[in-house]
Amino acid sequence: ITSINGSCREGKSYVLNYFIRYLRFPDDPKWFDKDIPNEDLFSWRSGRERETVGINLYSEPFIIHQGTREVAVLLLDCQGLFDPHTTLQQNAVIYALSNLLSSVMIYNVKCNIEENLLQNIQYFSSYTKAISRE
Nucleotide-binding as a keyword (predicted)? Predict the structure, then answer.
């Protein structure tokens, strides 16, 4: 499971839609330009209001061939952190659950990595560690 997490309105769903294109057309050098119907993509839009709420799992696994074995890749889209509707505790839960479910977690940062972002990641990671012990 590959998940993407990060602050609200920074393009997480948009990026995952390119992952879908790449995984659907693995042998096509023009995968980047492939059109896929909107209903087959993660929902996204520009603007200030959030689009993704909670944690969304893509509806189909992608089967990747690695030598003689097959690996299923699942994509997980997470609600943006730090929106005006979500408490710090709720943000920590979203981060922790996506972290625990994922083999690979991407923390999407649109601009600069700042001290408060690193402190929040440290706090969320400690919450994840506490949950995983129970």
Answer: yes
